[in-house]
Write a structure and sequence with these properties.
Elements (H helix, E strand, L loop, with lengths): L1 E4 L10 E4 L9 E10 L2 H8 L4 H6 L12 E9 L11 E5 L10 E5 L4 E2 L6 H6 L1 H14 L7 E5 L4 H12 L3 E6 L4 H7 L3 E4 L12 E6 L6 H6 L1 E9 L4 H18 L2 E4 L8 H9 L7 E6 L3 H10 L5 E5 L1
Helix pairs in contact: 4-5
Bound molecules: NADP nicotinamide-adenine-dinucleotide phosphate.
């Protein structure tokens, strides 16, 4: 089969389209013909071997897993003898992070990493959902305890998580402000953000505006800046971003919560946990993934450069 392979850490230029052996499913795995796969921040980090801590798990000097790509959608071709939930022909999707292998024509997956894809959902849409939508749902609902009537701000609103988060937030009847670069603001307005802020022109933490909930995929400021932009009893939810800022929030969060009565929470992704919920929302027409692409498997190196430059809107999808 064809796959995008890398043998050493580096820029997207180390990725190459190769002919490799088709994987064979273990007893508790299924073999999937991949119809679509999306790019995540994990792929970007593992490609370069950053942050360094990743190398302790995934290869100190060179990558142990040679094929990246976690969020896949496809059709099951065969099943291992212990697989109970699926059969050949089923259309499935899910987040395979930890195992990866999605930038390929076929991939093996454990059945508990997969959910059946609704017939009305395309493979491209399904591949866009797993990580970004789980982070959005778990960030807003579980960590953010989102409530009707609140004012929400999403920092880094035009990427994968932000474009799902605004749609989920609208289900709760909240007013949403989105922060991103100028080229994405029209898209944000068309998606229902009531206010948009160009971060290259304005620092929302110094505008005097306050929010009940902040969902942050960039975490590029001090935790004190973020809490300044929170209303009393407001919640600041970190999805991801600069590690030093995340550690600062982790360290100072409990003290700030005690003294200023504002809460700081960090999302620990529970992969695939809410895919059935996403199926319900999708089938009810409440959520529609924003897709950048699709691009061909051979275009993964260019698509990775594009992802790293941050120019994409929503989720970059590849169709092997
Ligand atoms: N907590 C967990 O367990 C967990 C697990 C997996 C992933 N993650 C994290 O989840 C996040 C993934 O988010 P995503 O998929 O939405 O990323 P994404 O698609 O790259 O979107 C990020 C958006 O932020 C914008 N941006 C860049 N710099 C900004 C700034 N200074 N201020 C405001 N916006 C800015 C980018 O646009 P421009 O570049 O055009 O500005 C882009 O539109 C990552 O941080 C990742 O580390 C967390």
């Amino acid at each position: 089969m064809k796959a995008i392979v890398y043998e050493r850490y580096g820029s997207p230029d180390v990725l190459a389209l190769r002919e490799v052996d088709k994987p064979i499913p273990k007893d508790d795995e299924v073999l999937i013909r991949v119809h679509a796969v999306s790019i995540n921040d994990w792929d970007w980090g593992l490609l370069q071997g950053i942050p360094f801590i990743n190398r302790l798990f995934y290869g100190l000097l060179k990558p142990k897993k040679k094929i990246l790509g976690s969020d896949i959608a496809g059709r099951i071709e065969s099943v291992g003898k212990n697989v109970k939930k699926f059969q050949p022909g089923d259309e499935v999707y899910g987040d395979l992070s930890g195992d990866w292998g999605g930038f390929a024509e076929y991939v093996c997956a454990r059945e508990n990493a997969l959910e059946l894809k609704p017939a009305s959902m395309t493979f491209d849409e399904a591949a866009a959902i797993p990580q970004a939508a789980m982070l959005a749902v778990q960030g807003l609902r579980d960590k953010g305890q989102i409530q009707p009537g609140q004012r929400l701000l999403i920092n880094g609103a035009g990427g994968g998580v932000g474009t799902f988060a605004v749609q989920i937030a609208k289900l709760y009847g909240v007013e949403v402000t989105g922060v991103d670069s100028s080229g994405k603001l029209d898209m944000l307005r068309s998606m229902g953000f009531e206010q948009v802020i160009d971060y290259t022109q304005e620092d929302f933490t110094n505008s005097g505006q306050c929010y009940d909930l902040i969902l942050d995929v960039k975490t590029n400021r001090s935790v004190f800046d973020y809490t300044r932009a929170l209303n009393p009893n407001g919640i600041y939810v970190i999805v991801g971003g600069f590690l030093d800022r995340v550690f600062q929030a982790l360290l100072l969060g409990p003290w700030i919560s005690m003294i200023r009565k504002k809460k700081i929470r960090i999302v620990g992704l529970k992969p695939n946990k809410d895919l059935a919920y996403m199926n319900e929302l999708f089938e009810a027409g409440r959520v529609k993934p924003v897709i950048d692409g699709p691009y061909k498997l051979s275009e993964v190196p260019e698509a990775m450069w594009y992802f790293g430059e941050g120019n994409h809107k929503g989720k970059i999808v590849i169709t092997p």
